[in-house]
């Protein structure tokens, strides 16, 4: 009896080991895509490792000394926050002017994304870009003589209010550029626009000296320009094909992409083009299910043997 029990137990154990290749030999293929940078969680569609996340978000985030950086064609930004529920993130550019200081010299990044990446990122509608010290020849003012047509308030934020910031009074002294809230017939010293109107905030192309950006997270409305949230608030989107990743994660997989930039579902021991319940490759799948059936049978048999033997 004892020998039969130990025989069936070892048989059962053998089949269990055989039938779970993912834990036995699959660890090479297992990635843990979720990670952290400082206190920011990096999760789908973002990733720090290549092969993880959505392909539209590849080569985008870098973690340096616990500082998360976002890299696009216009430059590198520090990521202050990623809001997964609202699919948005907040970026900071060291040359972004705010209420305390205006950084001249056209060194600011602005915001421009590569054409292939553009569908995935766009500053939110409640984000205002304030372009400062732009040349009268700037494309911003062409076609709108004297009217400054593109300049407007965005979500209650605009240059009229921004002029009240201390940054302007310190700028007026000594610089000799003649800037200030009062202007004559020329273009305004500051022109506020929403991103949709120009699509590319490129200071050299727009011939501007500086820029600022602030955003409003409705329904919160900040009182004055000193209370505004300065930074670039960007909405991200995986372009509607998120069902793929949801199905993958629901079956215990992690979403990634292959060398051909197609999405893959990483299922521990194998990669699937759909999800982890789908047939990975006929051979391993059949072996697995056969192993499971046999292990189950042996397990049942040995338990039945044990309990019936004890009665
Ligand atoms: C992360 O840490 C910084 C300070 O190091 C803090 O200002 C920020 O609020 C933290 N963010 C989160 C999401 O905890
Ligand atoms: C910005 O504009 C300049 C001048 O037109 C151009 O050379 C540069 O490539 C643009 N930058 C980006 C990031 O598009
Ligand atoms: C922006 O709003 C201010 C008041 O907050 C107003 O005085 C100004 O005329 C508005 N500017 C534009 C361009 O609509
Ligand atoms: C699955 O795909 C990921 C991302 O391309 C890759 O790093 C990994 O090696 C692949 N795993 C297997 C088992 O092929």
From TrEMBL:
Keywords in UniProt for this one? Membrane, Signal, Transmembrane, Transmembrane helix
Q: Does the keyword Membrane apply?
A: yes
Q: Which GO terms describe its cellular component?
A: membrane
* Residues of the Wall-associated receptor kinase galacturonan-binding domain: 33-93
Which region is the signal sequence? 1-24
Q: Where in the cell is it found?
A: Membrane
Protein name per Swiss-Prot or TrEMBL: Wall-associated receptor kinase galacturonan-binding domain-containing protein
Source organism of this protein record: Rubroshorea leprosula
């Amino acid at each position: 009896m004892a020998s039969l029990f130990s025989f069936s137990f070892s048989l059962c154990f053998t089949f269990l080991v055989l039938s779970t290749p993912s834990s036995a030999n699959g660890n090479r293929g297992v990635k843990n895509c979720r990670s952290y940078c400082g206190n920011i969680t990096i999760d789908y569609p973002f990733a720090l490792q290549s092969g993880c996340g959505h392909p539209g978000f590849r080569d985008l985030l870098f973690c340096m000394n616990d500082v998360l950086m976002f890299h696009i064609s216009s430059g590198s930004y520090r990521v202050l926050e990623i809001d997964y529920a609202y699919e948005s993130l907040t970026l900071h550019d060291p040359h972004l002017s705010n209420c305390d200081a205006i950084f001249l010299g056209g060194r600011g990044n602005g915001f421009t994304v590569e054409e292939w990446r553009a569908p995935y990122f766009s500053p939110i509608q409640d984000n205002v870009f304030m372009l400062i010290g732009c040349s009268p020849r700037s494309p911003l003012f062409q076609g709108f003589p004297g009217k400054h047509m593109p300049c407007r308030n965005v979500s209650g934020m605009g240059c009229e209010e921004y002029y009240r910031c201390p940054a302007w009074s310190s700028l007026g002294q000594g610089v000799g550029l003649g800037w200030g809230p009062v202007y004559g017939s020329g273009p305004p010293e500051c022109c506020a626009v929403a991103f949709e109107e120009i699509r590319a905030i490129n200071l050299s192309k727009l011939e501007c000296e500086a820029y600022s950006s602030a955003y409003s997270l409705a329904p919160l409305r900040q009182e004055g320009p000193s209370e505004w949230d300065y930074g670039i608030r960007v909405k991200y989107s995986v372009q509607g094909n998120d069902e793929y990743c949801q199905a993958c994660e629901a079956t215990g997989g992690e979403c990634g992409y292959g060398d051909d930039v197609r999405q893959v579902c990483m299922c521990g021991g194998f990669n699937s083009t759909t999800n982890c319940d789908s047939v990975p490759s006929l051979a391993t799948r059949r072996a697995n299910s056969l192993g499971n059936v046999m292990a189950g049978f042996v397990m049942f048999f040995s338990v039945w043997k044990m309990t019936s033997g004890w009665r």
